[in-house]
Request: fold
Amino acid sequence: MKGVITMNQNIGKEIRRLRKEREITLADMAKSTDLSVGFLSNLENNQTSPTIAQLHKICNVLSITINDLLGTSTPTAKQPNYHEIVVRANDRRCLFEQDNGGLRYEAMTVGSTDIKTSAMIIHGDNVYSFSPHDHAEFGIVVSGSMEIQIDSCNYYLYPGDSIYIDAGNMHSAKKTSDEDCISYWCKVSTTYVPKEFQ
Reply:
């Protein structure tokens, strides 16, 4: 199926655990995400895979980021206050792939960090839509070029360009270069307060 992402097979169990921990029923999750109870049940039982837009909707209801959800699959990330100081480019863990590698996200921060950072690599020529999420995003293009649409405005980004996307904005991205477009993204909760100001 076009747009389906590939990820850790235990993700459904993790979604179920987090949903139950937050005392959210499947019916409530379905209503909040506009996804069917059957689809969510199949997802929790690892019988189907979500698109990135569907995963964003689920994470919003759970009040977490995709990095939080996919990072919980790493045993060391479950240790309180654990985080890696350095993540080497060649050691980045794939968070997920969509369209057989057309879109790939890799973790640039691992563990309990205040800011979640990932590399987004767009290899394919598709337009990738992202549901609004409860965190703002800041992105920097490292190589290649891309077009980002926020609501109905188009922004063209080239190496060194950056963009800030407010929480709650529908947006999409596609590469405009012949080569892969690589960008780095920081996701910051709207309630984030640096430790020195707490």
The radius of gyration is 16 Å. The domain at 83-197 is CATH 2.60.120.10 (Jelly Rolls). Confidence is low (pLDDT under 50) at residues 72-78.
